[in-house]
What we know:
The protein has two helices and 25 strands. It is mainly β. The strands form six sheets. Strands 9, 10, 12, 15 and 16 form a five-stranded antiparallel β-sheet that branches. Strands 21-20-23-24-25 form a five-stranded antiparallel β-sheet, with no helix packed on it. Strands 3-2-5-6 form a four-stranded antiparallel β-sheet, with no helix packed on it. A hairpin with a 5-residue loop joins strand 24 and strand 25. It is globular.
Amino acid sequence: MRLIAAVFFCALLHAQDFSEISGQVVDSATKQPLVGARVVLVRMNPGASYSTRTFDTELSPESPDPAAPIFAFMTDAQGLFRCRTTSPAEFMLFVSRPGYAKWGMSLETQRTISVKAGRTSNPVRVPLDAEGAISGRIVDADTGAPIPGLAVAAFRWRVFDGTRTLLQSGDSTTTNAAGAYEVTGLPPGDYHLQADTPTRGKFSPGGTPEDFRNHREIAYGRSYYPGVELREQSSSVTLLPGTTLASTDMKLTRRRLACIRGRLLSAEGESITGEVPVLLGRVEREGDSINLRSIAMAALPVGSSFRLDGLPPGALLARRLVTEGLAPGPPRGLYILPTGRPQC
Length: 344
């Protein structure tokens, strides 16, 4: 019986197919190979996931298991990497190196590698852009006082499948006590800078109708460089490879913002207990695309009232998220008038 089992196990080993994945990482400007770049390959099996932490994956042992779900290597003196894996398989590719913009998380750099049974894939060439940064201060336009706690991000126009859209690039940041910020991890290009008050998850109890009726909020709303309310009125800035664009300052003016107050109700015929996840998103037209950006998301008890402050003019969409046993709730459109009053 042992002999039969051993023969069967050996037969499985010989039946297993193996493939090789290889490539080279280079500087996009000089075309020179980059030594010491971290290359991470994530096998796209059911349940596979990745995030910004994927770039920090611990390096694989010298002879890793070919069936491993994830591999991580450092490129050699010629910028080369090589991996032996079971096949067929499909991998997501992530590449990082200090001083260069990360490869793999953005739509423009996402890359999948497919290997067929018993075959070697074509070598992959990965050009990394020297990363740059944009820094400056954000102050009050009237008093010159610094504005801390603003979320700052850089966006640039990209085209995918014939659709032109504005996408965030690099790492977002927050202004410090002196109103200073620095957006890092940016490849070269033209950018629009956006400053906003973080609002995600800040649902508050709704209060009484009287409280809401007399509500009036004057604060800093979402703004664009050099300090305008609408992205169409903003000025773009140009970042060269590997440079820091300093003194990109913004002066913001306080203005009237909106507040939404509502109550979470179950649909007719539904019997719901406990809390239900609710999403409020901002509908934005950017080039040829229409995007829904999450503003707030929280689990609310059915029958509870809520409110959300500090909202700029624009179109919003509220809906119940999918949960076990519940269908997604019908979306409800909201439009906030420039006066700061919501129109339902």
